[in-house]
Amino acid sequence: MPRKSHSSHSCHPISQFTKFGIFPDFHRHWFCCVSENEKSLLDSTESIQLEDEYDKVDEEERLCEPETQNIGQEEERLIFSHVATRDPVEIYKELKDTVHCKKESRSDWDTLTEVLRCFSKSGWASNQALAVYIGASFFPFAAHKFGSFFLKRCNNDLVKYLVSLGPGDEADKFLFPIFVEFCMEEFPDEIKRFRKMVESADMTKPHTWFPFARAMKRKIVYHCGPTNSGKTYNALQRFMEAKKGVYCSPLRLLAMEVFDKVNALGVYCSLLTGQERKDFPFSNHVACTVEMVSTDELYDVAVIDEIQMMADPCRGYAWTRALLGLKADEIHLCGDPSVLNVVRQICLDTGDELVEQHYERFKPLVVEAKTLLGDLKNVRSGDCIVAFARREIFEVKLAIEKFTNHRCCVIYGALPPETRRQQASLFNNQDNEFDVLIASDAVGMGLNLNIRRIVFYNLSKYNGDKMVPVPASQVKQIAGRAGRRGSRYPDGLTTTLHLDDLDYLIECLKKPFDDVKKVGLFPFFEQVELFAGQLPDMKFPKLLEQFGENCRLDGSYFLCQHLHIRKIANMLERTQGLSLEDRFNFCFAPVNIRDPKAMYHLLRFASSYAQKLPVNIAMGMPKCAARNDSELLDLETRHQVLSMYLWLSNHFEEERFPYVKKAETMATDIAELLGESLIKANWKPESRNARKPKPQEKEEGYQRPMSLIKLHEK
Ligand SMILES: Nc1ncnc2c1ncn2[C@@H]1O[C@H](COP(=O)(O)OP(=O)(O)OP(=O)(O)O)[C@@H](O)[C@H]1O
Ligand SMILES: [Mg+2]
């Protein structure tokens, strides 16, 4: 069948795609079309080859100088401007029918060569080419072939026009549609292959992935406001009134809190997290972590807490999925205003009704301008010192307990939720000596604590590469933990340890909330499976990488970072006997990828599973609480391994994990040991991957703030 002509501009593939605005969201690189040999050949010989063509031209032809030789560029452009309006399809046909063309002067030739070289390097053209399914890695090869084709066949008018434009955007735009015609004829198989692959990684219109939710007319209520303004409280009222409700939490800890609170108020509620399932008999309510929420069940009321997490680079997809997919008549979203505009857009796409309820903070947060003047001795009862590294948390605890009469509780990410709760209630409770809390950003979400004042120990944190300022939204969220309604200190205060940091704190608190433009998505297994069908021999980690590079997304979405997933995928690459689905599921296991011991256990679990053996815990139980920081780190790791075991037992065939009961008991015991250890902890912190520094090695990165040094010197 002859190919459809694209002579009409309105039906040209380029204009169709531009209409939908998909170009910028394509990711680059497609390694399947061009072999490595071809690629390296391309890079080294491209311009040389084009110049050689000139040298091959007949001497007589070269001497034939064009009449317009001495006119200026602008004039030339005018004279040849009719070329610009020509139909690219016709130009291509003409080029195709030309057998041999008279050559131009050396300088015109050089300019034309440069124009074509620039085109083959043009990011714009490469990006546009994706829309007609010419992959980014294939583009240089195709552009090179096009260049040779063009040089051999172009006529005087075309040359002059392109020379008058010179290398750059205008020439690229002129050449591009001719290039497309060329590719469609020359590389139909490559285009077809790439098209199939891209289509299998299509993540556009995610609201259409949930047809049952789309068939419903849902009412979305956005409880929008700053921290401590009653958003969750009000949403939970509706949740409790409902016949059947689900509460989606950002953390296990918060799901447990709601589970306890709601049951205490007489509304039977079950608990569902990745690690545990507590079925309350006859309950119609469930408190779960957002990743675990079912999009199959039908609910009257659903609550999605901390909805701004939709924009989280790693976990955002879980909130997006819940919002798009939940089958509930009424969905209550609680969060700051940063994703309000995106939610408005999503509701337009889904056809759901959106009701906005705006909140103000119960009591304004007051900044204490005096700060702690760099001296931890100025700590007072009810203070929560926020530090962003585990090491700092223990340094601060050590310093405060050594030089003041205060005792400190600690809350940080690596602690199990049970231990965090135990530390929180120790701090909240008046009948003991623990009156200061030292916490990481893990304290930022949800927990209702009796905090009088949030003191930022510092306002920068390590992002895995370097120290960066803590984002304003996070500063606000954490500072907002001070002075909760109903707590002992309803008037919240916040300040910094050092005077130098105060301006940044004030700046962050004053800053309006970001207006988030994109929220996270991640493919379901079925989507990855479809994609894998296009690349049958590709290993899973590479497959994920390819998916990330080739998937298509609408303007309101980004693909969540999958570094964590890729790390696990890489580790499991050589484990034989796992299906694609097993690999995909193992990648979501909750493990600290920077903890080699925990990673080792995950590999062991996966290997046993792959060999169809019962998966053993194969880990001893420590006898007593930690006596130093390395023992504490060991307890943290052990708990994490058990938590991972429980998670796997809930996400794979349960009978393959026969030691669930044992793992639960051990996890509870370790959480208790951790609690005991923290009460006693008064040692210098160590790093998880500690090794002895070489004598000449200087300690890099974090430097202990002056205040602590002064304190120790004294
Ligand atoms: N109407 C109310 N009556 C009694 N207590 C309330 C009321 N509204 C809120 N509270 C209490 O105020 C505190 C803060 O409320 P809530 O947790 O709902 O705030 P939030 O806006 O969700 O804050 P965050 O953004 O930090 O999650 C809670 O302890 C809550 O129980
Ligand atoms: Mg809340």
Would you mind describing this structure in some detail?
There is one protein chain. The chain is α/β, with parallel strands linked by helices and 714 residues long. Helix content is 46%, strand content 11%. The strands form 4 sheets. It has an 8-stranded mixed sheet, with helices on both faces. Helix 18 links the parallel strand 11 and strand 12. The termini are far apart. Mean pLDDT is 85; it is low at 1-52, 57-69 and 691-714. Residues 225, 227-233, 334, 446, 448, 480, 484-486 line the site of adenosine-5'-triphosphate. Magnesium ion binds next to helix 13. InterPro entries: DExH18_N, DEXQc_SUV3, Helicase_ATP-bd, Helicase_C-like, P-loop_NTPase, RNA-DNA_Helicase, SUV3_C, Suv3_C_1. Homodimer; in free form. Component of the mitochondrial degradosome (mtEXO) complex which is a heteropentamer containing 2 copies of SUPV3L1 and 3 copies of PNPT1. Residues 371-524 form the Helicase C-terminal domain. It catalyses: ATP + H2O = ADP + phosphate + H(+).
Brief summary:
46% of the residues lie in helices and 11% in strands. With 714 residues, the chain is α/β, with parallel strands linked by helices.
